[in-house]
Amino acid sequence: MSDVQDTVEVGRRRRDADEPRLVDQQQAEALVAQAREQGVELLGDGGLLRQMTKAVLERALAEELTDHLGYEVGDPAGQGSGNSRNGYSAKTVLTEAGAVEIDVPRDRNGTHEPKIVRKGQRRLDGIDKIVIGLYARGMTVRDIQAHLAEIYDIDVSPDLISKITDAVLDEVKEWQSRPLDPVWPVVFLDAIVCKVRDAGTVKNKAAHLAVGVDVDGKKEVLGIWVEQTEGAKFWLRVMNDLRARGLQDVLIVVCDGLVGLPAAIEAVWPDALVQTCIVHLTRASLRWVNYADRKKVAAQLRLIYGAPTEQAARDALDAWTDSEIGRQYPAIRRQWDAAWEQVIPFFAFPPEVRKVIYTTNMIESINYQLRKITKTRGHFPTDDALIKLLYLGCRQIGRTARAARAGRSTYNWKIAMNQFDIMFPGRLDKA
């Protein structure tokens, strides 16, 4: 057996040993064999799985009532107790096995409040998790309805699916206002554009994301803001929002040359260093370039942002301008000149810090995955609907990333932190 197979088999045995097994293998095999003998399907309406779900739920509900009354069925201790069993009420609940009809036991005084299937509850919590999970992966309401019907044989209306996902909005508001650490070494600002209906018209709106790297090198989406137009007032509101939640200082803010953003950053965090995102600047430059020339131009631009000093970068930019291919694309020089004040800080950083700032795979990866789940929508009915989906997407991405990295921080982060401490003396002490 190969090493990989050994690992799989050992993993299976360990998991079996650690987890409690309420139904052993022989019992399960006997149930399946009996179902087949009687012509009962394993899944579907009236299938074995639904029958078992019904039996377990009804048994658990009966035990709950026994615990509430304080005596078993037929126990003489119940005589004169002031309360007793009073038959059953039938209800249908949606479960992960499908729709199951159960008999819920009642007490005569009506004081019993069941916990497993609450009064008025028509679906178990597992269904909500399934719906929200599918929604977070980009499935539309109609897609989810069809999926539940096909896989779980559950007939759920689009309105119910919307109500289930709308329940997340309270969670979104809490997440958007959660307290933040006082100091973040690096904050990235980026946006994705989506179509949103506003005042009866579908418009392009930007969903702006702030992604921070904390003192331990862990990445976190700090917030999402939707706006049709950007400007100093909008960015000042975003920065003040972050500061009100506890974010008192940022060492470096990495962003595009967005209108009004540098001024808003300076107003709220006057000591923050604003750095243009080199990846975005390079990508914007390549938009001017014919496909056949892109590799050559990209290699030339790499000489600029890869230069060891600001003067060397300026020399490389001048050499680009005077080159034959540089003369073909004069707009690129104008772009770099316009952004140069926010490009300059990059050359003062040591290689360890440059990698943290330049390597924007983290925020690029988030945006890529969020675009995947938003592109299935023609447009969103409201700003809240867009924020809801982006939040669920971020939550799903975060869970996947945590599982993949298992607590690993940004590459070479300890070295970068030592450089930050030298470059920004005393500012990390508040962290």
TrEMBL record:
UniProt lists the family membership as follows:
Belongs to the transposase mutator family.
A molecular function (GO) held by this record is: transposase activity
What does the UniProt record say this protein does? Required for the transposition of the insertion element.
Q: Which domain of life is it from?
A: Bacteria
One of the GO biological process terms: DNA transposition
Q: Where is the signal peptide?
A: none
Protein's UniProt name: Mutator family transposase
Would the keyword DNA-binding turn up in this protein's UniProt record? yes
Organism equals Micromonospora avicenniae
Keywords, A to Z? DNA recombination, DNA-binding, Transposable element, Transposition
Instruction: Name the segments for region: Disordered.
Output: 1-21
Bias regions of kind Basic and acidic residues — which residues?
9-21
**Organism ancestry:** Bacteria, Bacillati, Actinomycetota, Actinomycetes, Micromonosporales
